[in-house]
Amino acid sequence: MLVLSRKSKQKIIISDNIEIEILSIEGDQVKIGINAPKDIDVNRYEVYEAIKKENNAASKKINIKRFLN
């Protein structure tokens, strides 16, 4: 894991097309802005995990239906 220190208004660039900017730091919260191409999904980790869980559950339902027919 790469660990970087950034101050407010400083940026990080990933692979020439993803830009992350530290917008503000207030107490224990850091607000970040992310500019990425529309074909790249950007989610909070907990949202990503929920989507992954839902997709796994949906794929299991599909496989069960296939075996029942």
UniProtKB/TrEMBL annotation:
The UniProt entry, under InterPro entries, shows: CsrA (IPR003751), CsrA_sf (IPR036107)
Annotated coiled-coil segments of the chain:
none
Cell inner membrane as UniProt keyword = no
One GO biological process from the UniProt record? regulation of bacterial-type flagellum assembly
- Compartment list: Cytoplasm
Ordered alphabetically, the record's keywords are: Bacterial flagellum biogenesis, Cytoplasm, Repressor, RNA-binding, Translation regulation
The main location class comes to: cytoplasm
Pfam families noted in UniProt: CsrA
Which GO cellular component terms, listed alphabetically, does the Swiss-Prot or TrEMBL entry include? Answer: cytosol
Q: Which family does it belong to?
A: Belongs to the CsrA/RsmA family.
| Entries under PANTHER family matching the protein | CARBON STORAGE REGULATOR
Q: Main role?
A: A translational regulator that binds mRNA to regulate translation initiation and/or mRNA stability. Usually binds in the 5'-UTR at or near the Shine-Dalgarno sequence preventing ribosome-binding, thus repressing translation. Its main target seems to be the major flagellin gene, while its function is anatagonized by FliW.
Q: What is this protein called?
A: Translational regulator CsrA
Taxonomy of origin reads: Bacteria, Bacillati, Bacillota, Bacilli, Bacillales
